[in-house]
Specification:
Length: 71
């Protein structure tokens, strides 16, 4: 939903995250996000130039990243 302003993330294993536009790709040099942590992020509240996508790769073994729209 393009009007989403807040998301919450939860991963079942550690991942690397990067936000950006529709072509964003994550790499091992990006933000490390540990498993078992809930993290709520603001997406900019409709401001121009905000990031619209999140890319993730597993840091070790296969896992799942859950992304929930909150607002």
């Amino acid at each position: 939903d393009p009007d989403t302003r807040v998301v919450t993330l939860f991963a079942t294993g550690p991942v690397f995250l990067r936000s950006g536009n529709g072509t964003v790709q994550a790499s091992a040099g990006d933000h490390y996000f540990p498993d078992g942590i809930w993290c709520t992020l603001s997406l900019g509240g409709g401001k121009a130039g905000r990031h619209t996508h999140i890319a993730a790769i597993a840091a070790a073994t296969d896992c799942t990243l859950y992304i929930s729209e909150m607002e």
